Amino acid sequence: MSRIALVDDDRNILTSVSMTLEAEGFEVETYNDGQSALDAFNKRMPDMAVLDIKMPRMDGMDLLQRLRQKTAMPVIFLTSKDDEIDEVLGLRMGADDYVKKPFSQRLLVERIRALLRRQDAIAGEEIEETEDTKVMARGELVMDPLRHAVKWKGKDVSLTVTEFLLLQALAQRPGFVKSRDQLMDVAYDDQVYVDDRTIDSHIKRLRKKMRNTDNEFSAIETLYGIGYRYNEE
Question: What is the pTM of this model?
């Protein structure tokens, strides 16, 4: 049973969403501000967090920033209806996905299940070795899907589930272009729609993490209007 942390200062959302998730078989922990959630996470980390952005004491952005210092667990943001800036900023800070308020609870459940499936696929120790699960070396890049481990020039790089899957998809075939639609299929289930901006934000975050390890990193190339390509260095 996966443990989902739901963090929102709207008690109606906490009550209704937690009831839905529990009915779907999840264990749910609820918090009405970011600081309370962080205090609890420091003692026991959940399997996934669903965070509102605007909250008292500590908002969702601050909470995400602190979480990414210690964990790559999947995070979904709940964003206001018209606030595209929050969506893009959240993705660039390391969120895996976002859902706009007001939202369909069925949609939220599907997003949660999709991310957990991908996390399980990456972390599973008993998965049969395939092209997607065996250790892959591409020049200075080494990826171990079964351990969710990435090294660049011998240094560890911490990636979220979505970032890992995107990098893996690009690096599997160096020199070949992956369109945004193809990358969407890699990172999300068919029933989960995301737009081009979501993929672009994840790629920017991925590049930033790689450049924090090596400021000369340039293996991911943007082909404007087409997609992205991994060039083996």
Answer: 0.64
